[in-house]
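Lecture 7, part B: from sequences to assemblies.

Below are the input chains for today's worked example.
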Amino acid sequence: MALTASPAQGIQMLSVQPDTKPKGCAGCNRKIKDRYLLKALDKYWHEDCLKCACCDCRLGEVGSTLYTKANLILCRRDYLRLFGVTGNCAACSKLIPAFEMVMRAKENVYHLDCFACQLCNQRFCVGDKFFLKNNMILCQTDYEEGLMKEGYAPQVR
Ligand SMILES: [Zn+2]
Ligand SMILES: [Zn+2]
Ligand SMILES: [Zn+2]
Ligand SMILES: [Zn+2]
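Predicted structure of the full complex, as structure tokens:
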């Protein structure tokens, strides 16, 4: 398989000429005797055999592109789910792979491990209150303390 810079590969649907020798399918290794075949990754496939390794959808049907990674053939949706990125963690600014669980606060995403009060490192459980101030995650205590220093009355939302 030729290495390409992009994981996206085109799928072509070809009609089989009756006078040519049947091509072997790269999926099931049987000869393709259908009227149509798919050409992808420089190989020939039955329409049924070119499937996403994750969700089994027929790639010839969902679009004209397939994605490859680590010898897997995937549809766009699964490729992005497995190998895409959610974004940069707002706390440590490293990339977060799409399959990782994240915490979200407004437009920000965080690694689960990074989601803690950035002043006292307190972790939050489901249902705990947290606050976003100047793009920093704060626990309720630190948030209210900050407000008091600024001379505002504490305000719990
Ligand atoms: Zn086949
Ligand atoms: Zn899929
Ligand atoms: Zn992080
Ligand atoms: Zn805190």
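Note for the exam: The longest strand covers residues 8-15. Keep this in mind when comparing with the next example.
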